[in-house]
Design brief:
Distance between the termini: 39 Å
Number of strands: 15
Shape: globular
Structural class: mainly beta
Helix content: 10-25%
Oligomer: single chain
Largest sheet: 10 strands, mixed
Radius of gyration: 18 Å
Strand content: 25-35%
Length: about 240
């Protein structure tokens, strides 16, 4: 499904070589296998988009390792006649709001107008607020990991600390740009990696994934919220935290 190289499925970030035969199936996501066993609550819906509250551990798009257990497969169950068009993409282990267009108009109209606000638990006590301006590039010899490097793409992250204890800070984060792994890379770069994010230097144990949650979307007078995930709040011994 998706992209094949010499007859074998690959990812869009995999390397290809001179002489390889690459086949791209552009219609795959229209015919995703529906999976009614999955669960992702709908927080907002109109005729053009639907916003899901995606749990951690659920990929957005199918891949080599995930075929049938993605948000796309759940969307195919709910809307069997519609093409799956994710407007924003969350990492598999990032929880929270994910907007999906129900038609081509929704895909183009909402692409640049939805403001997304994230919440993260970072190791250490960060400054009360700040801006991280550091270019992001792909780590050499890696197809997944990113790093801060002078020849990278322009990337800016704004944050404020809203809660902290002796070991961790709960941050509200506003992205000026949207680079792959931007939040994870930036906070690791300034010495405050996200809790549980072992790819970028965070310690595991207190949480079994990167402590990152997309908690708010704002667009055209609407504000859509997803309460910060329980496993993140547990780091701060909080039963709830209104955002």
């Amino acid at each position: 499904m998706g992209i094949t190289r010499n007859g074998k499925t690959i990812r869009s970030i995999d390397l290809v070589y001179n002489g390889d035969i690459i086949i791209l199936n552009l219609s795959d996501e229209k015919f995703l296998d529906p999976n009614p066993e999955l669960k992702a609550c709908i927080i907002f819906e109109n005729e053009d988009i639907v916003i899901f509250d995606k749990p951690a551990g659920m990929p957005v798009h199918p891949s080599i390792r995930h075929q049938g257990d993605t948000l796309g497969n759940y969307f195919a169950y709910l809307y069997p006649d519609l093409t799956f068009r994710a407007i924003n993409r969350l990492d598999c282990n990032t929880s929270g709001l994910c907007a999906v267009a129900k038609n081509s108009y929704g895909a183009s109209h909402y692409q640049g107008i939805i403001k997304k606000i994230y919440y993260a638990a970072a190791e250490g006590i960060t400054p009360e607020y700040g801006t991280i301006n550091a270019p992001i590039a792909r780590e050499q010899e890696s197809i997944i990991k990113r790093c801060v490097r002078d020849d990278g793409q322009y990337a800016v992250t704004h944050y404020k600390r809203i809660l902290f204890n002796q070991k961790y800070s709960l941050l509200e984060i506003n992205l000026e740009t949207g680079r792959t792994h931007q939040i994870r890379v930036h906070f690791s770069h300034i010495g405050y990696p996200l809790a549980g994010d072992d790819l970028y230097g965070g310690k595991c144990g207190i949480i079994d994934r990167q402590a990152l949650h997309c908690g708010k979307m704002e667009f055209e007078g609407h504000t859509v919220k997803s309460q910060i995930s329980r496993d993140i709040l547990n780091i701060f011994n909080q039963e709830d935290f209104l955002i």
